[in-house]
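Hey everyone, long-time lurker, first post.

I ran two proteins through the pipeline my lab uses and got sequence/structure pairs for each. Pasting them in order. The first:
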Amino acid sequence: MVFSKGRKEEIKNLIISWTSPNLLTKSNSQTTKEPKETKQTQKTMKISRFEDLKVWQLANRLSLEVSELVKTFPKHEKYDLANQMRRSVRSIPSDISEGFGRHHFNDKLTFYERARASLGELRNHFQEALGNGYFGEGGYKDYSKRMNEIGYLLNRMMKNVRGARDSYENERKAKRYSSRRVTSNAKH
């Protein structure tokens, strides 16, 4: 399979660069005295580390905060609900980072889907904790809003990976078809 240099770069950019500025941010280690970025620059910024993904940053922050929140739960929940919440919330940024490190489209999607499933599990645990009165409605709404944002960004990222995969597969099919056509015309 031979792709033109430009096409290889395009496929690579589809994989590591997301077109939505909502999925991009600069990590703290990169914040130096640089001129402010325009929206156009931000849209084409390449992401080279999972820490640069806004969805990972939000999920990681949520993980740290939920770990602190469950410390306020009653002692009898230490090994039950609190433990389940900690495990599900920790798995979200972990699966995002692991998916980011995968080089095949379907592998990436598998880990992003796991992160989304863990987010759903966490939502369920929050509903249960709210029902048990471990925190108030206001706290629940705040966490729910943040989980919705993470879910939205995860879905957008998965949509972009699927689009890159489909584009790559269509390119392969077109190349295969055109090479068969050239060989069959040469025989006649």
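...and the second, right after it:
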Amino acid sequence: MGAMNIKYYTITLTFLLTIISLPSHAGKIYRFLDENGVSTLSKVLPPYAAQQGYDILDDKTYRLIEHVLTLEESSKINAEEARVAKVKEDQEQQKLKRLINDRSLLDRYPDDRVMIKARDTDLAFINKQIEDVKEHQEAKRSELHKLQQNAAEAELSGQTINTGIEKNMAAARSEIANDEVHISRLQAEYKQTAAQYEADLARLRELLNIPEPTEEDLAVSKDEISK
């Protein structure tokens, strides 16, 4: 009897445990909008509902298990995640670029006076180039003016303008135009270089904990440069 009772209790306990465990393995039911826009519950999910988004519910308690997004919602979320990831990547790249630039500034310039000297040297070099091109352009204008005078005198005297004069005038005009383009490029380079030095100088002073110079300091600096 003892053995039979144990077997009976074992079978009963197994059966009870199976019953108790059934809710945890409950089935699923789908909630979606049908073709008329009415909220519908079904054990079967129609193909059109799979694309427009739906809820997965516990078929016993109707507890929400999962909300499945529509294709549009999913696309928007994916696009936003991609945008956020891109922004984060760009920020990391900017941070790395800033660190490299900081290291470069500290390696090249032990203090701000060294950078100021380098800036003045570079800007003076570009300015000298501008003056040289302007001087060349002015010489070509003078040359063109003389050629035009010679051509006018030839016409007044009834002579045919020399082919060589026409070619020289065309060449002079071309060089004047090229010089104008060159001057514009050099002026743009001057502004860009000055702006870059200004930004680098401010950053270097920040890295070295050097205060920004006062107007008096700038005046003294200009006096020293002029000497």
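Reply from user beta_strand_b:
Welcome! Quick read of the second one: The first strand starts at residue 28 and ends at 33. The longest helix spans residues 112-156.
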